[in-house]
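fold-stage: in
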Amino acid sequence: MIPIWLSLSKWNRWQRCGLALGIATVVVFGILVEVRSAYLKRRMGDLGVFVRTAWAVRSGEDIYTVTDPNGFHYHYPPLFAIFLVPLAEPPPGVDSSWTIPYPITVAIWYVLNVLCLAISVHWLASALEESPGGRVSPWALRLLPVLACLPPIGHTLMRGQVSLLLLLLLSGMAVALLRGRRGRAGLWLAGAICLKVIPAFLLLDPLRRRDGRCLTGCALGLVLGLAAIPAAVFGPARTWAYFQEWTHVLLWPALGPGTDQSRAKELIDVTATDSQSFQAVLHNTIHSDPTTRPRQPSTAVRCAHWLVGGFLTLATLWIGRRQQDGPAVIIRFGALVVLMLLLSPVCHLHYFCLSLPLAMGALAAVWNGPPRFSGRVGMLIVLVLHGIAQVLPHLPRLQVLRDGGLATYATLLLWLSGMILLWKRGRCYPLALPREQPVISEAAA
């Protein structure tokens, strides 16, 4: 299939104007990101943490104790910091003659993130168009889900975060699953886990399907990304020490049993961030006054967090247990991604850009449905509500909506829509494909 941007001669005037407007918006927003990140008295965003940690890799310092000019720490596995070494920024007073100036680094990172978004959308849309189910409007399939997730997309671009890179890795996994390349899907998942540990939650799906190739590919990727490459850079002993340190200062305190409070005010405390997890929303609802709100949730709230998340996860796996067609596979995958976010003890607002696969799969499902399986208008309403609910928590004087989890409830509405679509598609297409059979034929791919 020819990519949509290579058939400009077939575009009408409105489509070309839309493309020009989109490019202009990306450029103008990039200028705002550049000014906010590099030219204010105080740098804004998280890119400074990443490039300062990359310098620690380069200079041999401890990557989990070094901080950026705002005093923030690095919270990810070592692999990401290793890959960012070419963009490393030294601390003040250190020779920087062989480093890239920070404003140029901001521009490079912004362009890379925009490319990650564009490639992710095109991969998912192309795979859905190739799968059985009928015609899909290429413009609706690519544009509407992006608009529904535009607030968190803009948020992650403004903060210089890694969510769009994570979206690219997860999209690669979803497309590989559609095309029956299960070992490659496991490698994509391993890359996502090496970037940010929470995608390990998605192992539930290949475990349920007893997909040995996917699990083997993931295991090989994890050995490479979490052990082999860091050991080659730091040495085996220091790599092991880094994982022990990361577990002590971040993993156990985030899950509850840890006692280290060095990252509490920065990340782990419920009152420290704009977290939208089940745990944070329940805690904020019980303690509605932010001035008297405890910094840590109670044991009952933690238990409720895992019970709610566990129930919704089981419901997703059961309703989506059959692999019917492309939209069904993407909906099931996207629904698990959404639950992965909400089950993470810390779920920032910009994480919800990862709702895009679910939105795209749901839109493709209603577009492809048989005559008795309609619902385009209803799906469009859900996408509009999702977009509005992602905007409102960012507005001044609407902190109550952020603390109350408006973005969480809107994302759950999108999840519920996906589950309803899966249930109906299971009744319309009762025969499941064999586990070994790809959804998209090799000829179509």
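fold-stage: in (second)
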Amino acid sequence: METRPLLSLRDDARLRLDEGACLPLRSQFGGCSACAAVCPVGVLSVAVERVALADGCTNCGRCVAACPNEALQIDGFDAIEKLPVGAQPIELECAKVPADARSADAIVVPCLGGISPGRLAALNERAAGREVRLIDRGWCGQCKAGCGPAHPAQAAVHTVALWLHAVDEPIAAPHIVLRALPLARMPADIPFPDRAPDPGPAMTRRQFFRTLAESPTGRPRTTMGTDGRAAFPASARRESPERRRLLDAIAAAAQRAGGGVPAEFFPIVTNNGACADHRVCTAACPTGALKVTEADGAAALTFSAAACIACGACTRACPEGALAVEPHGGGPERVTVASHTRQPCSNCGDEFSPRAGETLCATCKKSQRFIGDAMSQLFGARP
């Protein structure tokens, strides 16, 4: 898969965007605003044509943790990928905590609220039984990031604990430990003393000019229409890194307990029988969970619940209203959602999936309709 460049949303902020992974930017059917909804200072806005970041970003990473497809990224959270050496408990600390107040081998991230359930579950799995603590300094209620009275990592901790309980994992889940510090020691902003902003993959000359022409700061790109053309091709789709981390951690825990990943983890896609093989759903799917395979004059629409983030883009895109998504109840295997017989168009010869009595593909039918309408307007008769 081609490595896509990351775009900085502002020169004075560390937040960067992978346009190809952002659901609203991929197509008009994206329908996601999770990042804007969790932004504690309300400076993120999302629309079909652009993602915008206003003045005031705290660089907390809460939007990064909320993004279902990891389209937003901020440097600093990669620290959680490395385990400190030894047998002592693993402690996660906010970057605002002074170095002299935390353990020497603590894992420091910009904000504990920016740790997603998948990252936390993966860390707990790598810890192999070592206790994982998220240290609460009692500052969150007064933090500039607007965390409120509840600890910002509480939702992630709760999610991981629920999944580990569901698979009867004997290893303890990560938990929050209160170790208060005087409020006077809290800096106003999240410091990044040892980190320079990561510009992401270097752009080629072609990528630079394409980004200049099509990025949210320039001309809005043409979003996907009902003809199935996507702003980002199939090669630009990718499995959600966050979902993969969470699935791998749950699967490893379930294997230790002698079971499997619960069906509650897997979405399910159903077809009411109206599928007409338009394939707009596969173009809209950002993760490749929906794919079409062709063999021996037949086409099959297949679905992988392991890759599905239940965004609903496929259901909104389907011109026939054939698909429905339920967030729970599926399984890890790729399954067939719809099957179609293919035949060559009697006019152009391209293969298509006909309905009863059809001999022309959709393009040729549209062309004939256009010619017929033109003839009728010009001569009062159809050919």
